[in-house]
Amino acid sequence: MKKISFVIPCYRSEHTIAHVAAEIDAKMKTLTQYQYDIILVNDCSPDNTMGTIRRLCGENSHIIGIGFAKNFGQHAALMAGLRHSDGDYVVCLDDDGQTPADEVDKLLDKLEEGYDAVYAKYEHKHHSAFRNLGSKVNELMARVMLEKPDNLYVSSYFAVKRFVVEDMIQYENSYPYVIGLVLRATGNITNVVVNHRDREEGVSGYTLKKLFGLWFNGFTAFSVKPLRIATCFGGFCAILGFLYGIYTIIKRLVNPNVPMGFSSTMAAIVFFGGMIMLMLGLIGEYIGRIYISLNNSPQYVIREKLNFVQGNMGHTNRE
């Protein structure tokens, strides 16, 4: 009998995570061909999310609880859950109830058909305008930087086979980006349409700062295209500067009375100086992340585990 491991990163979800777990339990009772467990990873939430996880673990032996020592982000929480999973299929979803756990059979059916990974696709998303904008930028970044197929929609609700998980957890650098890890492991990916619900309570934990951090993780961890784009743009600006210099010399020779433009010179200096600083900052971002990775900074640090049997599941990054 195949086993399904559900991995759920938890942050500010003390009032919602119990509903999600109950929905999974109810659905899996109808899918009797599968065994299952639920891995709840508390990303050092400031509310009583860990207390709710402790209660759920005490009530349900199917639930495994993991508590971080500090906030490491959603993707680090996903990596911790993946390392502690042992299911033939692993399903990742949100803790707020917006991703419909009762439609997990749609994702599992696609895996049974032979796909290696399945992403849920929403016809109508119930996010705020800011979150929808962030999703669109993330989608564009994945397509341009990570060579994601144009017709593939990626979301936080997805299912993958065991061999994909085994490849993903080999990545131990400090800045994990789960979408990039899936795309790196396989190209045999498809979408399945599911409903997207209204948030039960609260607001998204993704601030503008966190979204920028997520985008930087994506293209600095798995792509050197930004450096190539910077190089090409630098070459283009150099050609423009050279052509403008030729134009200025010819104009001066044709009409010696033409005044030399201080304003245009300063504008060019400011523009090219700004571009140089931007490119140096981008290079510095890559170098800084290399430095942090060489220092073996952990993806996460685990303070607490509940209902976890050592030896039955994967290793952890730092405990």
Structure notes:
- By secondary structure, the protein is an alpha/beta fold.
- The protein contains 10 helices and 8 strands.
- It has helices at residues 17-28, 49-59, 74-83, 104-113, 129-145, 162-168, 178-185, 208-222, 225-254, 262-294, and strands spanning 2-10, 34-42, 63-68, 89-92, 117-122, 158-161, 189-194, 302-306.
- Strands 7-5-6-4-1-2-3-8 form an 8-stranded mixed beta sheet, with helices on both faces.
- Helix 2 links the parallel strand 2 (34-42) and strand 3.
- It is elongated.
- The two termini are 31 Å apart.
- Mean pLDDT is 82; it is low at 312-318.
H/E series: EHEHEHEHEHEHHEHHHE
Are there runs of 5+ residues with pLDDT below 50, and where? 312-318
The major pleated sheet works out as: 8 strands, mixed
Strand residue percentage: 15-25%
Q: Helix proportion of residues, in percent?
A: 40-55%
The radius of gyration over CA amounts to 24 Å
Strand order of the largest sheet: 7-5-6-4-1-2-3-8
Termini gap: 31 Å
- Which structural category do the helix and sheet elements fall into? alpha/beta
Oligomer: single chain
Q: What is the averaged pLDDT score?
A: 82
Query: How many beta-strand elements?
Result: 8
Task: Give the number of helices.
Answer: 10
Please tell me what the overall shape is.
Answer: elongated
Secondary structure layout plus pairing:
Elements: E1 2-10, H1 17-28, E2 34-42, H2 49-59, E3 63-68, H3 74-83, E4 89-92, H4 104-113, E5 117-122, H5 129-145, E6 158-161, H6 162-168, H7 178-185, E7 189-194, H8 208-222, H9 225-254, H10 262-294, E8 302-306
